[in-house]
What we know:
Elements: E1 2-6, H1 13-24, E2 28-30, H2 32-44, H3 52-57, H4 74-83, H5 87-101, E3 107-111, H6 114-118, E4 124-129, H7 132-145, H8 152-168, E5 181-184, H9 190-204
Parallel strand pairs: 1-3, 1-4, 2-3, 4-5
Amino acid sequence: MIIAVDGPAASGKGTIARALAQHYGLPHLDTGLLYRAVAATVLREDLDPSKEADAVSACSFEDYLLDDPWLRTDEVGKVASVVSAHPLVRAALLNRQKKFARQPGGAVLDGRDIGTVIAPDANVKLFVKATPMIRAQRRHLELRKNGVLTSLDKVLSDIRARDERDSKRSEAPMLQAPDAALLDTSFLSIDAAVQRAIAIVESKTNAPA
Ligand SMILES: Nc1ncnc2c1ncn2[C@@H]1O[C@H](COP(=O)(O)OP(=O)(O)O)[C@@H](O)[C@H]1O
Ligand SMILES: Nc1ccn([C@@H]2O[C@H](COP(=O)(O)OP(=O)(O)O)[C@@H](O)[C@H]2O)c(=O)n1
């Protein structure tokens, strides 16, 4: 079974994807981390993220980089949304994601274009959303827990800028696939959101709860 989970920053898609993977015993890929690894390499090598050739040269990163906590910072997330708009960067990361999705037994992937480009044949597609303010509050809290002090206003404007870039780019923009179920987590606890996601998987497949 392939489960595709898409949605904007801090909507809760990663939390839901991880919980679904654990519930159904499936491997999980956070595809945002791949773009973050490209961004981190660009930053580390002092390249220009807006130049496609620079960003492409950063696509052959070593896998151990994916475990670096720095990748999870907002600094890297912002640059990830710049490098991810380049068609050649997306092409360089495509096969790895498609191969992960097609492994025997299935997989759960989360990102922006899983249901539309990476696994258009997924058995279940979820598009997770929440209001920009609620997403900003979640990210702000997360950053504070990690010792990063920044204002809620700054987090909100970064989230809006990232939404804008991710949904307006010409190649694989963030959008809800026509056959994706919409899951609005704005007023759901994590547990309630996960239960709702499991119920959606159940309704689309014969998988046991
Ligand atoms: N339904 C929810 N209610 C409250 N907090 C949530 C909810 N879902 C996720 N979070 C928290 O919000 C932050 C962002 O969630 P995450 O799953 O990483 O989002 P995404 O993968 O969409 O960026 C995390 O700190 C997570 O624990
Ligand atoms: N499948 C994907 C996943 C991420 N991305 C890009 O990578 C950036 C970081 O993604 P992420 O999922 O790690 O970010 P968060 O939603 O966790 O904040 C996004 O803003 C997108 O620009 C993408 O273009 N396609």
